[in-house]
Amino acid sequence: MSGTTTGIQGKGHKGRRGKGEELMVPRAEFDSYYGRPVIKAPSWKDRDIAGYFFTGGLAGAGSVLAAGAQLTGRPTMAKALKISSLAAISLSTAALINDLGRPARFAHMLRVCKPTSPMSVGSWLLAGYGPMAGAAAASAVTGWLPRAGAAATGAAAVLGPAVTTYTAVLAADTAVPAWHGAHRELPYLFAASATAAASGMALVVSPTRETGPARCAAVLAAAADKAATAAAERRLGMVAETYRSGKAGKLMRCAQALTVAGAATAGLLGGRSRPAAVAGGLALLTGSALTRFGVFHAGMASAEDPKYTVQPQRERRRERAAETESRGRSHTHPHS
Amino acid sequence: MTGVFFETGSLFSGPEPDPAGDAGHPDPPARVGFFTDTSVCIGCKACEVACKEWNAIPEDGLTLTGMSYDNTQGLGASTWRHVAFIEQSAPRQVPAESAAPDGRTHLPLAEEDPQRPAGDVRWLMSSDVCKHCTHAACLDVCPTGSLFRTEYGTVVVQEDICNGCGYCVPACPYGVIEQRKDDGRAFKCTMCYDRLGAGQEPACAKACPTDSIQFGPLDELRERAALRVDQLQEASVPEARLYGHDPEDGVGGDGAFFLLLDEPEVYGLPPDPVVTTRDLPAMWKHAGAAALSVAAGAVASFVLPALLRRKGRR
Ligand code: SF4
Ligand code: SF4
Known about the structure:
Shape of chain A: globular
Strand content of chain B: 5-15%
Helix content of chain A: over 70%
Order of helices and strands of chain A: HHHHHHHHHHH
Distance between the termini of chain B: 66 Å
Number of strands of chain A: 0
Number of helices of chain B: 8
Largest sheet of chain A: none
Number of strands of chain B: 10
Strand order of the largest sheet of chain B: 8-1-10-9
Helix content of chain B: 25-40%
Structural class of chain A: mainly alpha
Bound molecules: iron/sulfur cluster
Number of helices of chain A: 11
Structural class of chain B: alpha+beta
Largest sheet of chain B: 4 strands, mixed
Low-confidence stretches of chain A: 1-28
Oligomer: heterodimer
Mean pLDDT of chain A: 91
Radius of gyration of chain A: 23 Å
Shape of chain B: elongated
């Protein structure tokens, strides 16, 4: 009976518990239980969690660029990026705590250290990175303890890249089809998006003579962002729909357009014109934020429609059965 | 295990004969579980009620859903047993214009269909519950250690530890665990941990009048289920199948498994669930490589313009 549209199954219905989300389940050739989702979408709010992905990326990649700027004698850029990293990581920690069902219990995160939980790993990472970013910024602003400040800058630059990519694992280590299905590609997308944001910030806050590396990073990041998105969509097969349609589709398209336009403006004009650099930087920052919101909403859409859970799993099961069968056949008739 | 600062599972996926021992319980009792034989379920919802009563679960809304006799809709923070009702008729094409308006359920039983052979209607009923997976994603991802493996091999939330991060919710491949809105913390079936401690069977199994829900040592239940499915197939019910019984499956086998009469997705179950942490080593590897690429990209960005400038000056 399965596989065909039988009675009341197979025809998707509008999500009954659709938490205020407009969810249209297309009528499809698959069985489901009254069109209800198989897995539960996270209760996370986009402002908090997608916002957290963005600010975490901005902070982490910003620390790396700040260290580079300090080493190469770009004092304005170094100082400004240290301040922006501290602000961003403070915001992201606040967002994370705000999203807890029991915010007063946020310290329970540090009860255990669990490598199997990306959220636990991330909490420890933030506990290490946050103070370093803070010390680097404090020293840069006050001019006190320059040695310690330099050491903190270095430590933040070492931990920063991990802060930008662990959030991809945080999302991918779930049963959400659009995230878990892209678990190999998502870290690279987050890395590229974080670099785009940080270089955008550098373009906005630094004088033109210091922005050379930021312009270069912006162009690299935009190219990597495009490549990673394309790779993720290829891997996802039919689930890639969730990145192309609906709210997520709109966000991803805007994000890509802004990222490319921002990198092009910064790369071509940013070296000559300060307003162009600022405009490019703002476009990169916005593009990066929209990418995170796009990824977030693609995940939500893929969790709320049972077809994205059921169809790939059916496919996987069919392939496995076919494989076992062909192996069985080659066993019984090795020469046929 | 609670109280242990560093927690690692020794295995991420695959067969695991002793999850309780693996979690650090010395000399654990035999792993227990549920075998839910849906072929004898009569849809009385005694299990739902017994569960609510025993565990003092709050009321979670009185709605008429139009989903046959199902008014609880699915497992959640306040529904730890859920009876699914599926009304099936012969496969037929439904013309697009006669399809149900959005938000309303199309009830084919009430319609005249001359093409449908008489009597070709059946009702499937199934009492769903947390699967107490051998490799439980909810437990793996919980950052506080609130979710833990009991000595019976079951998976339980400690309410006083949970900080409501909600990570376990999308991690569960079956969509079982959920946060309570007004409370923030996550809740799910405990397999009546308190009753097990007192040598009692869980309330749902106790209340089930047809023994559709059977409780016992998991090994014994698996044997019994294999016999039952053979018996049904011989009695010309070829569609009878077991679900979640296989230690080789994507979650290492369920502590609560089922005998179904149709594909799992018809009951709202995933056809081929996988514990998401199975891929965690690969994810960390890619995250590490991606982190290095951030550093490498930055180095390149500082070095390239300097090189270009030097070349330009020459
Ligand atoms: S079914 Fe879901 S909630 Fe239950 S043990 Fe498995 S992963 Fe956890
Ligand atoms: S919501 Fe509670 S039980 Fe679930 S992962 Fe977070 S702390 Fe653990």
